[in-house]
Amino acid sequence: MPSERRTTEEKDRQVVVSVRMPSQLLERIQAIAAVLSTSANTVIRDGMDAYVRDRVASPEFRAASEAYVEKAQAQVATALQDHSASSPA
Which pTM was predicted? Predict the structure, then answer.
């Protein structure tokens, strides 16, 4: 979604985040923003949106997320097992 078309509701839900980055990267972001007549904030937000979309769509992320869910399910099962073994019948 182009940043210029963000609704008031979407803007109301935004939060401020502090991020550390090398000064050269910030300079490059500011140069891109100047060329595109937009803000560095927009370049960063749009770049992160594209990164997250691409990352989530990757096979590596899918495999990692499935492994994460399996591990979490095993941990919950262990916690419930320990709980049921120690609760009075």
Answer: 0.66
pLDDT per 10-residue tile (average), the chain, 89 residues = 62 87 98 98 96 96 95 91 63
- In this structure, how many other beta carbons lie within 10 angstroms of the beta carbon of residue 11? 8
Angle at 42 between CA 57 and CA 8, to 5 degrees: 95
- Distance, in Å, from the CA atom of 59 to the CA atom of 26, rounded to the nearest integer, reads 30
User: d(Cα 60, Cα 23) in Å, to the nearest integer?
Assistant: 30
Q: What are φ and ψ of residue 2, in 5° steps?
A: -60, 140
> How many Å apart are CA 57 and CA 2, to the nearest integer?
20
